[in-house]
Specification:
The protein is an alpha/beta fold. The chain is 56% helix and 12% strand. α10 crosses α11.
């Protein structure tokens, strides 16, 4: 179908990005949308010597959409802007990666972006009545937590930029240079939202349940109790699992080695099953989104796994040579129709999307 500007805008606002990408007018709308900041639209107008009336904001966007401007011209400006921005980042990238290697642990300190203010209000502002006690808690608890939170946010921000640049540097990829929701880049005209993740503990737990295996956490707790190894009951399950895994791995007994071998072998089986059938994990990731972040947009999942220490997989986000090798190998072999057709259910409703996965294990 051919979209009028208002039809394309309505489809975009309703998250029908996949449908837009299947139509030439829709793709043109999405690419223009990535240039919809005033400064970027001015650059587009200047690059192609367009004459546009003195209007503002969305009106300029509409006039550009309804102009004779073609996709090739839009892409030319996008690539030109990206290369200028990329040149500045490229100059300091090696030093930045070296700085990222200084991060020794990845711990949000009990604080999370979506609940940061609520956590502070609930646990400090409303709970503590003594000024001295409040100051003591700020110094001894809140400050270390905030420091951990900022370090994690800093690490995520810059490693995400490095990873996105690896994709955007490839000739099959067109960057989205402006802020456009749910699109980081286009691979051979198909828009994708990049999601960097690890092998989810929830997916592992579900696999074990489906194969009639007891939960890892249950087996590790049982071993620690048998060996009288202390562990805190206050830790969240994800943190407790990592804590117990380390304790049992370091235990010298044959029973500990046997248990760790069983757990790791199962994880390696899960990893192989994901390699053989990526759709299972892709579908799981869509179906297990949080309510606040739910959408069915096209996604490219970059799944990072450290086979020697699953809980250190976060470190692979800064391993640029490894990432670049695997990502470019994937892009070099991409077909003219990137992605897989994925159907999934969420909250009782069926969805269809285009998605794919790159699994990088070390």
């Amino acid at each position: 179908m051919s979209y009028t500007f208002q039809e394309a805008l309505r489809a975009f606002k309703n998250d029908h990005i996949r449908e837009l990408s299947l139509d030439s007018d829709g793709r043109r709308f999405l690419k223009l949308r990535s240039l919809s900041r005033n400064t970027l639209m001015d650059r587009l107008i200047h690059d192609h010597h367009l004459t546009i009336p003195e209007v503002s904001g969305q009106n300029i966007f509409q006039l550009l959409y309804e102009s004779p401007l073609n996709e090739q011209q839009i892409e030319q400006t996008i690539r030109s802007i990206y290369e200028e921005e990329r040149e500045a980042r490229r100059a300091s990238e090696s030093q930045l990666i070296s700085e990222l290697y200084r991060v020794a642990s990845f711990d949000w300190g009990g604080l999370h972006q979506n609940s940061l203010e609520k956590t502070i209000v609930d646990n400090y502002v409303k709970k503590i009545k003594s000024y001295n006690e409040l100051c003591e808690n700020i110094d001894n608890r809140l400050y270390p937590s905030m420091k951990s939170y900022v370090l994690c946010s800093w690490y995520n921000h810059w490693t995400s930029m490095i990873i996105e640049d690896i994709f955007k540097d490839h000739p099959h990829v067109l960057p989205a240079v402006g802020l456009i929701k749910k699109i980081d880049f286009f691979i051979k005209n198909v828009p994708f939202d990049l999601k960097v993740t690890y092998l989810p503990e929830g997916f592992i737990k579900e696999y074990r349940r489906e194969h009639h295996l007891r939960p890892e956490l249950t087996l590790l707790k049982q071993f620690c109790r048998t060996q009288k190894l202390y562990f805190s009951q206050d830790l969240a399950d994800v943190r407790l699992l990592e804590d117990l895994w380390s304790k049992v791995r370091d235990h010298p007994s044959g029973a500990a080695r046997e248990l760790m071998t069983q757990l790791k072998n199962t994880r390696m089986q899960i990893l192989q099953s994901v390699r053989d059938n990526p759709e299972t994990l892709i579908r799981w990731l869509y179906e297990n989104q949080g309510v606040r972040r739910f959408d069915a947009s096209n996604r490219l999942f970059l799944v990072l796994v450290d086979e020697h220490d699953f809980f250190s997989s976060w470190k692979l986000k800064r391993a640029k040579p490894l990432l670049a090798h695997e990502i470019h190998q994937y892009l070099d072999q991409i077909t003219d129709r990137p992605g897989r057709d994925i159907s999934f259910d969420w909250d009782g409703k069926a969805y269809a999307t285009t998605a794919d996965m790159i699994l990088i294990s070390h």
